[in-house]
Amino acid sequence: MIVNRITANPPTGGRISFARLDGTETLELVELHRRAGRLASSLAELGIGPGDRIGILAANSPQWVLLDLAALWLGAETAGFEPGKFEPDQQLISRYGLRLLFTDRPADAADALPLAEVDRLVEKADSAPEPVVWEPDRVTTVKFTSGSTGEPKGLGATAASIDSSLRAVQDMFHHRAGDDLFVFLPLSLLQQRYWIYSALRHGHDVTVSTYEAAFATLRRARPTVVMGVPAFFETARRHIEARAARSGKPVGEQAAQLFGDRIRYLWTGSAPAAPATLRFFNEAGLPIFEGYGLNETCIVAKNHPGASREGSVGRVVPGKEVLLDADGVISVRSDHPVNDHYAYAAPGDSEKVFRPGGIVRTGDLGLIDEDGYLYILGRADDVIVLENGKKIVVRPIEERLTSGPAITEAVLFCPRQTELVAVVRPAHYPPDEAAIADALADANAALGKDERIARAIVAREPFTVENGLLTSQFKPRRPQIRAAYAADLANPQEGIHAR
After folding, report:
1. From CA 473, how far away is CA 194, in angstroms rounded?
2. InterPro entries attached here (predicted)?
């Protein structure tokens, strides 16, 4: 398996760079491998071994990567905690059974160590222990679902599920020497660490940044591949369009200036991408490929060069099978499941999602066309049932509202069971209410009678992770948005009314 190869065999090429606002630090991958082995030796002296769990609560950094690789070396589990969502206290250590917690935040807990201690532990050792051999069903890391409500659920990811996903991605995209994959989402998300494992296995470069530094460092880093959630690419689109309008230069030229001149493709997933944004980048000469997956399944389907269809999330990858029930709700069967239960969740949560035989009920609605392309229609829980019994799938309607330049985000509700009302984020503040009214009219012109939107409530502020209206993967938290705008939704006089 790949997780065994990357610790047992030093890489034959490639570099890893850590980009910050104040500069970039670059290491040869063989040096990263050497430091990880020495860190593993020092951690072993502290009593860390197979089955122990190390917590990491810190921003993306070289130390984060070294700790993750050293844990793989020792057969220890990692638990990556997203800064801002967790606090580095004794309660965290006790709840998740951590032997040690490394953090770049102030912490008084007895088993919490400053992240800077990693550097000392690397220098303390002069050799590496023999790497542990991971069995396929052993858990390498605990990851946490972003969730739209409640506490994050903990999920142990098996070594075989990581291996299966890495192989599927490599078969589609053929990452190789000369590629540089740009990663800026938190390393607490296991999928972001996949690209570091890929670099160690296949000898390509990888650049690690933070979300805050991403745009500032893109052009300097000159990556060939950029991994990002739809919200990132939607923000990039607005930057590019604004630059093109100011300069009078072509959009494609401005896109290349922002992303650098070596882009091979852009990768997006984790949340639905606006069709207009996908078309924008494709037409600008930067191919963008949308895919589909969950924490509970990892990658399920992906568009890729030679097999891409607009509106779909691609064909189902080897090792996965998509099952549709009578209502179109998607379940996914995996040859190598991520797991068959949550490690940390409320009673009954695992039973709602995990089924025998490596099957996960996703709660998403979908269909598969005659050529095997998967389309995601929305969430089963987000289907609105009108007073007349008509079922409304909200995602296609929301996508129509955001297809033009006036509205960047839309979340549809039905406050009185008789009319649809959208809470919308305008492209600019103060909002252009006339442009929003036009977008509402354009959407309604293409919709059926029961699907038409009666009015739009303009959000008083953007939906963000910080104000609790987006998950950490930038999906809307519908219950929180409904609560924030409850009075406006309930008052039929509020908002911009359809003409």
Report:
1. 17
2. AMP-binding_CS, AMP-dep_synth/lig_dom, ANL_N_sf
Determine the Cα–Cα distance for residues 497 and 455; give it in Å rounded to an integer.
4
| The two structure tokens encoding residue 71 | 């844990």
Q: Determine the Cα–Cα distance for residues 107 and 93; give it in Å rounded to an integer.
A: 11
- Numbers of helices and strands, H then E, in the chain: 16, 26
pLDDT digits (tens, 9 = 90+) for 256-275: 999 999 999 999 988 888 88
Per-range mean pLDDT, top range of 182-186, 400-404, 425-429? 182-186
Nearest-angstrom CA–CA distance, 7 and 24: 25
Is residue 386 within 8 A of residue 421, CB to CB? The reply is no
CA–centroid distance for 397 within its chain: 23
- Contact (CB, 8 A) for 101 and 112: yes
- Radius of gyration of the chain from its Cα atoms, rounded to whole angstroms: 23
| 3-class SS of residue 254 | helix
**337: nearest Cα among 354, 323, 352:** 354
Report residue 150's pLDDT band, with 50, 70 and 90 as the boundaries: low
List CB contacts of 306: < 8 A, sequence separation 6 or more. none
The neighbour count for residue 72, using CB atoms within 10 Å, is 26
Longest alpha-carbon distance in the chain: 74
Q: Which residues sit opposite 331 in a β-bridge?
A: 323, 361
Cα–Cα dist 484/492, whole Å: 16
CA distance 245 to 259: 18
| 3-class SS of residue 408 | strand
DSSP state of 401: H
Average pLDDT for 55-71: 97
Closest CA to 39 of 77, 70, 83: 70
Q: How many residues does the chain have?
A: 499
3-class state of residue 124 by DSSP: helix
Using the predicted structure, report yes or no on whether residue 149 has a pLDDT greater than 60. no
Give the other-Cβ count within 10 Å of 431's Cβ: 19
| Residue 434 phi, psi dihedral angles, 5° rounding | -65, -40
Residue 144 to residue 154: CA distance in whole angstroms:
5
142 burial via Cβ count (<10 Å: 0-12, 13-18, 19+): buried
Distances (CA, A) of 274 to 62, 392, 473: 34, 19, 15
State the pTM of this model.
0.84
